[in-house]
Amino acid sequence: MRGPPLQYDAIVVGSGFGGAVSACRLAEGGMRVLVLERGTWWGAEPGRRSFPRGLLGVARSVRNIRFRRGIVHRNLVRDPAGLYELSLYEHLDVVTASGVGGGSLVYTNVMEEPEDEFFDCFPQEMRAGEMRRYFDRVRSMLRPAPIDKATALPPKNEAYVRLARAAGREDNHEHPDIAVVLGDPDEPRTVVNAAGEVQSSCNFCGNCVLGCMEGAKTTLDRTYLPAAMRAGAEIATLTEVEGISPTNTGWQVRWFDHAAGRRRAGLADRVVLAAGTLGTLRILLRSRDRYRTLRGLSPRLGAGFSGNGDQGALMLGSSLFFAGEQGPSFNAFIRTRTSDGRHRLLLGEAGIPWTGLGLPVHVARRLVGTHMLLCMGREEPDSGTVTWDGNDLSVDWDSLGDSDLFEEIEHEMDILATTAGASRLVSRLATSPHPLGNATVHPLGGCGMGDSPDTGVTDHRGRVFGADGLHVADGSLYPRASGLPPSMTIAALAERIAELALHS
Ligand SMILES: Cc1cc2nc3c(=O)[nH]c(=O)nc-3n(C[C@H](O)[C@H](O)[C@H](O)COP(=O)(O)OP(=O)(O)OC[C@H]3O[C@@H](n4cnc5c(N)ncnc54)[C@H](O)[C@@H]3O)c2cc1C
Predict the structure, then answer these.
(1) 276 lines ligand 1 (CB under 6 A)
(2) Which domains does the chain have, with CATH numbers?
C-alpha cells in the first residue's frame, strides 16, 4: 500500500441506486465525498466504454464469474472493467451489473413503489406515509412514467394485453412506471433531464438490458451521479473495496485500484456501503471473518437473504407474440394478490434483445414466437442465508424456502403459455441442474433493517448496529422480499438515510 491515506467526510462504496443517491445528497449537504466504484463509465460519450452488442460483445463484457458449487470454488475475473457479474451458487444464479450507475445501466427501467403495508416489516420509526416524500424525491429526479400515458403502445405490449385478456387476467393487467424518456420512436427528440443532462427519447430498439447507447434510459450516471459531482463528490472508478476497519476517529477503507494495479486506503468519518446486496455482504463478512476488523455486528448478518421470488421462463413457439424487441424491455405485467388483497406476484414478458444480440437472420426467424417470461413474487422472509466460507460468500438458498410461491408462479406461467399456444415452456431458467434451482436479478436482504441487533443488522437510519459511522444503503437492507422491482425503494431508502445522516 503506497501513498498517504486520503481523508473524506464520507466514503460511499458503489454507485448503484443506493450509492448514487447517497453520494449526491451527502455532497449536496456539504460533505466531502469519495465514491469508490469497481466498474467503469459506460455509454456513447467520448471516454466511456461502449455498451456491448452482438453475442460475442456480450460474452466479452462479462466482468467475472463466481462459481461456488460442490467442491468447485472459482472466481474468474475476465475483465475488471466488464459490465455483468454472474454468481453461480449451488441452487441460485445471480446476475448483477458493475459500472458507474450500477444496476441502472442494464436494468429494465421499472420503478415500482410497494404498497403501504410492505413497510410493516421495517423498523417502527419508518412507515409508508413517511416514505412517500422520499419516493417523491426519487420521482422528481428519475421522472418515471407508464408507457401507455406517453406514447402509443408497442406491438408487443398490445399482444401482452391481448394475452392477459384471453387468459382471464385482464383486470390484473398494468403498465408500470419506467424511467425512460418516451416519445414518438420514429422521431426521437432530446430533453434536458432533472439533473441538467441531455437525453434522447427512446427509439424502441429494445436493447435496455444491454445498455442504452441512445441515452434514453434515465440512468444514475445521467442523474444523481452528475449532480453529486457538481456538488463536489469525487468518483474513483476501477476501485474494488476489500475491507473496512474502525479507527480512533472514524473508518479506514481499503481497496484494490485495478487501473494502477495496487492497493490503496482512505479515511472517512463515515462509510456508506452501497455495493449491492452481495457486494456489501462480501465487504462486511470478509472484514468480520477474514480480516477480523469488525466485531460486535448483529448475528442477523447474512440472514433473510432472498432472490425476490424471481423466476424466468422461455415460452417457445407461441402464436400470440411478435417482435419481442420492440419498445422498452419490460413494461406490461399481470399482478396477482393474496386473498386479503396484498401484492403476491408480478408476471411480464421481458423482451429479449434479438437485434442487439446480432443473431443471424435464419436463427432470428426460427426464434419468432420465442419469448421470455419474468416473474417476481413475495418470497418468505427467511428463505436464504449468506455466510463467509473462508474465501468468499456462500449462499444457502433453494426454492423449497417458499415452495408455495414457486408453484404459484409455475401455475401462472403455464396458464399464459397455454393461452399463447406455446409448444413448450422452459421454466426455471438457471444454470443449476438442481430441480430446486433458480436465477435472480434482484438479490435482496442479508443486512436487514430492524428495531434491534436481535432483529436486524442496521437500524431505521441504515446505521450498522455496533459500528458507529458505518451505514448500509442498498438492496441488502430489505427485511423481506417485496416481490417487486426494488430499485425505486432502494433509492428512496437511500434518500431517507442520507437526510437523517446529515441531521444527526
Ligand atoms: C438485467 C436486469 C434487469 C433489472 N431490471 C430491474 C427493473 O426493471 N427494476 C428494478 O427495480 N430493478 C431491476 N433490476 C435490479 C436492480 O438493478 C437492482 O435491484 C439495483 O441495481 C440494486 O441497487 P443497489 O444500490 O443495491 O446495487 P447496485 O445497483 O447493484 O450497485 C452496486 C454497485 O456497487 C459496485 N460494487 C460492488 N462491489 C464493490 C466493491 N467491492 N467495491 C466497489 N464497488 C463495488 C458494483 O459495481 C455496482 O456498481 C434489474 C437487474 C438486472 C441485472
Answers:
(1) yes
(2) 6-149+177-307+386-394+439-502 (3.50.50.60)
